[in-house]
Structures are given as C-alpha cells and as structure tokens.
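Progress note, sequence design subtask.
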C-alpha cells in the first residue's frame, strides 16, 4: 500500500530536547525493526491500524524480510512514540522492537571550493610611495621628525661609504662547500 507523502516545513519551530538528542546519539532513527513480526501474526494492515492513533505519524513503508517487519516513518519523534506504543501492546509482546539504519543517513558530499583565477592586468609603473598615515597627522607644521617620512638624502660629498674588501679588517665569509685557504 503506497500513497503520496506530504512534505512541508513544520508549522512551528522547535529545539531538540536533550532526551531526544541522547536517543539519536544511541542509534534512534525514524525507522523501526520489529523482530518476529510474521510469527506473531503482524501484517502491514495490522501495524498501520495499531499506529493510526498517533498524531502526525506517517508510516511511509512497511516491508517484511525473514519474518521481521521494517517500518519507515516520517520522523524520529514519531518513531520514538510509536515504539513506546508498540511495546505497551499485547500484539507486540513476543517481538523485539528496535531502530534500524535510516537510508537517508549518509554523509553530505564535501564541497570543493572552485578557485577562480582572474587574469590580472600587468602592474603599471609603481607610483611613488607616500605615507599612508599622512592624513592622520595632526601637526600643521611641515617639520616632520619622522625618519620614515623623510626623503632620502642624496649626498654628493667626497666621503666614501664603501668598504674596502682587500683589507684584512672586516668579516670573513667561509662557506661550507668552499675550500678554505
């Protein structure tokens, strides 16, 4: 017996109760497995009739394999209530009722981000560097004492700032792969 199943957003928003969360962590699903259902005289019609009184419970499918009944419902909350109800009925006294794996319980596919490399225009000539914090300067004076903001001195004096590499004074660089003399 199959029919249409209505799928819609819940009328009210709710948070998951702690005891429901614990049941889910311990294996509760929206699917029930009734062991020894056929030897105890259970049929699909009988199971549907026994669960008909549960508000908002939709039994999606009932399948029988190896004498057991596999019942698919619409929600974990309703499956928990249905299991409790079944355990209290005499028709289910010789049956072990447990949850079985939900066919929708598969990991979501991993999202692989697609990198979009845009062709960039070649960099044009570099603009002269300026102090990006210059607009924050609260001094109206032009006498900046900041070394960073000063233009480099071009000194054409005769002083020599070079180091004499031929003298024995200074630093010696000996590399590991070079022969030492």
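Output:
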């Amino acid at each position: 017996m199959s029919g249409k199943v209505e799928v819609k957003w819940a009328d009210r928003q709710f948070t998951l109760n702690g005891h429901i969360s614990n049941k889910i962590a311990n294996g509760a699903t929206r699917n029930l497995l009734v062991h020894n259902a056929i030897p105890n005289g259970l049929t699909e019609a009988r199971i549907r009739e026994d669960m008909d009184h549960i508000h908002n419970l939709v039994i999606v499918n009932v399948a029988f394999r190896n004498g057991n009944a596999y019942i698919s419902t619409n929600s974990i909350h309703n499956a928990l209530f249905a299991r409790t109800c079944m355990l209290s009925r005499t028709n289910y006294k010789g049956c072990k009722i447990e949850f079985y794996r939900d066919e929708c319980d598969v990991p979501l596919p991993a999202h692989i981000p697609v990198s979009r490399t845009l062709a960039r225009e070649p960099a044009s000539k570099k603009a002269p560097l300026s102090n990006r914090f210059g607009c924050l300067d609260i001094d109206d004076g032009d006498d900046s004492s900041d070394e960073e903001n000063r233009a480099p001195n071009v000194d054409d004096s005769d002083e020599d700032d070079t180091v004499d590499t031929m003298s024995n004074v200074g630093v010696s660089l000996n590399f590991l792969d070079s022969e030492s003399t």
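Strands lie at 31-34, 59-65, 68-73, 97-99. Work on this subtask will continue into the next period as scheduled.
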